[in-house]
Fold:
Amino acid sequence: MWQVTTQLMDGTAVSNQLLADVARRSRRFLEQAGRRPCLAAVLIGDDPASVTYVKMKRDRCEKTGIDSRLVELPAATSTSEAVSAVQGLSDDLGVDGILVQHPAPPQVDERAVFEAIAPAKDVDGVTMHSFAVMAFDLPGLLSCTPGGIIRLLDAYEVNLAGKHAVVVGRSPILGKPVGMLLLARDATVTYCHSHTRGLSEIVASADIVVAAVGKPEFVRGDWLKPGAVVVDAGYNDGNVGDVAFDEALGKASLLTPVPGGVGPMTIAVLLDQTVTAAERGAGLLLGADAT
Ligand code: NAP
Structure:
């Protein structure tokens, strides 16, 4: 029986470093452009979790010198009303980034609303344009949770080249793009989903596991290869991730806690990309920052 010393990947600490850099760049933007970067959040309906997420993101904006604008639309909003609200923000020169909080109410075609976001303002990385940027491995705005996962792996100096990465989940804003970003780093990527056969055996062959399922403690400790790097992107009621945390301790070499792992990285990447979008919009990106 293998026993591995598990190191936790501290997303709060790594995100705080990133947020300090965001605050520095926000101040520089204010000096050079004469205004603060601005993130507009669109909240459709009053789903309590969505209200909390948007509030957390706006609080972080305040702390890093980013203006935040909140557009609240009623729960009965139609797709065309939501699209036109987002188009207005896309055309607004005072808005640098747009976040449409997921999930939208069921009568709203969320994809249509996402596609109303101007690509240059897609700081949450939800449009087809951003998806293509990630698929083609081009410079641009990334889906925030996948981008945060890669930054966390980089912070812990995880070498991805040649490693077998197994992504459990294939949603368009999490599972699929994180697999594309891992592929761009030369990992060999396997996607698993609800029709996958032999899931536990596939996970057992992984050097890197990304759990993005939306089911509490779905990935079990005895599925893991000893020494695997385990990233838990899940967030379920009661602060529970998609990995059975206690079972993964002693099996994983690196493991993200929930909370305090992927979650804070997601918000930090959102704000980082908002400042990047502002800098690009104002033509202020210079030298090494111009990626
Ligand atoms: P989602 O859209 O519901 O996708 C879930 C994925 O899991 C789907 O691809 C689904 O497969 C797959 N799946 C479901 N049951 C499965 C099973 N029995 N075996 C294998 N795969 C299965 O969820 P999401 O938006 O990607 O979110 C996933 C998790 O990440 C959630 O816990 C969410 O709260 C969390 N999340 C966290 C953050 C953050 O900032 N930390 C951000 C976004 C999401 P099919 O495609 O076949 O249905």
